[in-house]
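Objective 1b: paired records.
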Amino acid sequence: MTVETTLDPTPVSPADALRDLCGGAVHLAGDPGYDTARMPWNVAVDQRPAAVAFPRHAQDVTDVVRAAAAAGLRVAPQGTGHNAGALADQALEDVVLLRTNEMSAVSIDAESRIARAEGGALWQDVVEAAAPHGLAALHGSSPDVAVIGYSLGGGLSWYARSLGLAANSVTAVEVVTADGSLVRADARTERDLFWALRGGGGNFGVVTAIEFRLYPISDVYAGMLLWDRERAPEVVRTWAEWSRTAPDSVTTSLRVMSFPPLPELPPFLSGRQLVVIDGAVLADDAVAEALLAPLRMLEPEMDTFTRVPSATLTRLHMDPEGPTPAVSAGTVLDGLPEEAIEAFLAEVGPGSTTSLLAAELRQLGGALGRSSADAGALSHLDGAYAGFFVAIAATPEMAQQGRADATSLVGALAPWATGTSVLNFTEERTDTSTAYDRGAWERLRTIRAQADPDGLFAANHPVPGRRRGPA
């Protein structure tokens, strides 16, 4: 008697359909290169998608989007992964993480003052390309942040109080939509999509290239002022009073910082607790010096404010470059009255034992607080200051303490919070609607339903379509 046994074939993951795409640069869970491929810039974030794909050009993006949709998978575009925590807070087992960092070309049209950056280009790439033409972009405070994610989320630059959000200097977007089409959205074509992309994040497609205005800023009066943290009470109070009436030409931040004693840090930082004011003034030297005089009267131990090439501003803020483990929390404040200052200092001022690397208050207002008729979904920011509180999370214990300290500071400042969000500074999942006014939010939901009716795209901060639930 012969007994025949039929074995079921090994189950095939839906993501297997993508293996041959992007020249083979697709990594599925369990593949040898998967763990490296899924690692974002913030290495404290554990994102585990069904697959990670590295497109080399727009056609690769189109192929991945179409194949993912056919396999019943979703797509999450990601450049560097600075803000990856908000995505990793979502279920990713049916998501193809589409890492665009292989697409990094930048070109400058100096005559029209327009830059074009591919989907994975970094701000440093743009700054270095624009500088020889005497032009500057509305880049952020970190040189290795991707242009696309920053711009789609709003974008706060050192010129923000003069020139507004970076999203509203975007002039065109090339994007692969949910049906796998590559379209160009600008003020004349795909106008609703163009509006939504400027501030609406990665909810509407995969951006393969973006074009934006450059500005004739070859040099700027910029730098930092630095004191020991023991001086924080007078420095914070003086800066708060000064910032209330500072003209739009000034954009600054104030940080209370605590550095570990590391040999790779310069002596003025290593092992120290400091208070730092940095920023830029779009004015001539005489005007800038007069504006800064009240802060300089506090006799900082270091004062680097001077006329500098605009290209140097990408590293003014001393943000870490390269993969870094971090946790953070943020808020938006409508002001800094004495009670708010006292609450801030109680958490991070002299004598505190906070684990936060930096407790930052960034100056808003000016052009950031004004909307224009041709703006996108994020036309302006309500509030006077954006708070961003970050801690290094090299171990789970450090992450737990850092998150607790950041959350505690947000709670201490809650009486003066606007209830709104700056999504570029929001590294955990939140109520996305808090970043927009009601009319903009409802329009975003309508456009999402039209552009992506099946919820193909997974964004850091989801916008649900009006006819369906969140993607």
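Objective 1b, second protein:
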Amino acid sequence: MKLSFLGAARQVTGSMYLLELEDDYRILIDCGSDMERSSSNGQTAPAVTHPGFFPFEASSINLVLLTHAHMDHSGNLPNLFREGYEGQILCTEPTFALTNVLLKDAASLNQKRINELNTSKKQRVKERQTQMQKDLFLDRQVRESMENVVPIGFNRKFKVAEGVDVTFIPAGHLLGAAHIVINVVENGEQKSICFSGDIGRKNYPLLVDPATVPSVDYLVCESTYGNRLHENMMSPEDALADIIQRTCIDIPGRLIIPSFSVGRTQALLYTLNRLYTERGFPPIRVFSDSPMAFESSKIYSQHIKMLSVEAREFFKENEALFDFQNFQFLESSKASKAVSNFAEPCIIISSSGMVQGGRVEYHVAENISNPYATILIIGYCAEGTLGWRLLNGQPTLTIKGEEHQVLANIEKIDVFSGHGDRNDLVNFVSMQSPETLKNIFLVHGEYESMESFKATLAEEGYPQVIIPKKGERFEL
């Protein structure tokens, strides 16, 4: 059994791992978009090179396993099919539905980018357009990918080949997200490996807690928060109640919340519903400005049985997770822009969470010079994004070519982060015995976070920790 690390190695995004078994049976675990620039943290070029989009022949893959829907785990699936993959994708039912929404949105944006370049008469732009058509998937590739998905239930062994079975175990983090355990019998010897996917946190709005993983021989573990703890110790309800009280009730202000449409926005809307329903908050108008958030919320509502006990009980009592007094989804761009003229205190939730692209840029631009407005950052913002610049206190910002003075209040909370922190990661690893676990491979994190988490695990009695480079291959 051989394991190659083709993405999310010494960086956060681009999760993709190749497991090669006997008889040339090859399993690809995740196929995510790489959203980061190459770093110098000891990275090497992939050990296997290929002239196509991937460092392997796509048609040589027998099976794809998908931990969850986020684009850094699913975003290159259409390209895999375009390169010649003809097999199945196994994932949970909610992951299938959410991935479909995300990939269709990405294909639509890709088509717009190509159309914009098509209107140019400049030769240089034409050449760029030709290259983009080779690199960007469109709706046809998304349909082909989704037609080959086979939904798998949680906690059920599923035989995928002779001597090979897989089990999807609830991971929290996002509706349908899974830890994947693969059991393999080779030459009469049984081996097992777990891919953590993204590890959730306990008591997160709507979601179940990460479940127990059985004993395995090898563990591939994410390390996003491997060097830090969550800052806010308040519950999501208390943290959001405090912000709303100060920004919309004590003063007649406006609260802008940049938020990712899939997962984060649903947690926000559910928490707001609970505040208004159970705590008697004044019915301040709430606008959700994201068509993708609307589609994702419908998927959450269709999978009530897979949500937390608390969420199921709330739904039973109130018959709705996201629909409450004075709440409105904004479907058109015209309705989105009209909110700027709304004079009363209100809350606007819009994507993207890093304030980079999407309708939220317009809302930030319209309110950034308003001292009665507050922009609340609720998640990680990559360096260079508008969200990152807001958090770093820049006095002016240029948005869509226009400079704005920053007079709005900028706040941050991390209670809505779907990632477990260092303690959660340690708890996940501690399900495994140091005596029987052969290796831990750290992935999906900044290099400094991985180094810190490796040291933490050594203190916990796990010395067998490896931080693989991109392209490294290991015999298991």
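The mean pLDDT is 91. The chain is about 30% helix and 20% strand.
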